[in-house]
Amino acid sequence: MSLVVNSNIAGLNSARVLGIADRQQSTSIERLSSGLRINRAADDAASLGIAEGLRTQIGGFKVALRNSQDGISVLQTAEGALTETHSLLHRMRDLAVQAANTGGLDDAARANVQTEIGQLRAELDRIAETTSFNGRTLLDGSYRGTFQVGADAGHTITVGFGPAMSAAGLGLAGVDVTAAGTGGTTASSATTAAVGTASSITLGTATLAAADFDSLSGSVSHDGRTLDLGSLRFGPSDTATEKLAQIDAALTTTFGAGSVTATNSGGLVLTGTAPPPGASARDLADATVLFSPATGATRALEAIDAAIGQVSTARAELGAAQNRFEHNIAKLGVALDNTAASESRIRDADIAAEMSTATRASILTQAGTAMAAQANQTPRGVLQLLV
Predict the structure, then answer these.
(1) Rounded CA separation 297/96 (Å)
(2) Are residues 63 and 161 in the same domain?
(3) In this structure, are 115 and 66 located in the same domain?
(4) Omega of the bond prior to 163 within 30 degrees of 0, cis?
(5) Angle at CA of residue 67, ends 61 and 68, nearest 5°
(6) Which of 38, 146, 307, 322 is deepest in the core (most CB within 10 A)?
(7) Do 58 and 142 reside in the same domain of the chain?
(8) Residue 159 belongs to some domain of the structure
(9) Is this model's pTM higher than 0.85 or not?
């Protein structure tokens, strides 16, 4: 090996290697201090872009989780109020059943019952008007909320509460258990058909509305057969159409198809067909029908039953929506965990590996420093040759 003075090759090599080791040690110290493998884009440009995208998703998932929990809070607020609405309706129904007991109550007692029902209706209105969440009224029929339950656009759940859960919205504004039936409505006819003719004969007409009568009485006679209308039993929630179908079915069973029919034409119309030419002139005889009007208590029962069903449906819908939010929260939790793990693998430093790297770099730095010092001593050997 040549011994030169102008160029200290060994020193230059030692300085270069020492610089590399020093930079590695600085990088390791920085990573160990921050806990991050990527502290700047230059550390890993491609991985930084991926990690930032994952970090965006993680932030979105966290906010979406809070939004979903807000949705559950809204639903629980509404459902809690409807629990009390149900309690009020059950009490109103109990009172209506009590008021329907006309054999044991006088007018003053029914008036007291109606007073309590009035207070309960006022409370229904108050609950509907005042139940709110963060300034938004929930049960007045106007609420419709959209919750962002995902990290990306379009990941939403929309919830609406309707109709209004007030007395009017539930069809209870006109409930009055003190109202009594106004007396039976009678439709009757005793018709004699002219000999040799065939015609349609109307036996009688009365209002056909489900709330206008609870039962029928009287009978219809035709061709030697009689139908006792008092044998028909209507359900408390039967509509006018259902009552009409039951009446018509009974007429068909008794007299045969087409002989005597029940139709709805401005009211309940009982129609019989007069005998054909040559038959008996009085084949179609008397028909007397008494429509027994519903009392206010009976109508109240029907209206309250319908309102209870309406509130039950609303609560079921709220429960189903809450289950959606619960499932979404579970899904978001899994997505958040896995996305965070992926982002951590890219961005976070492996402390054990970095400690090994830092230790290696530290040793190399110390060794490089020692060798650089040794290399700087080599040119001084030239002086011994000059002595």
Answers:
(1) 5
(2) yes
(3) yes
(4) yes
(5) 90
(6) 307
(7) yes
(8) yes
(9) no
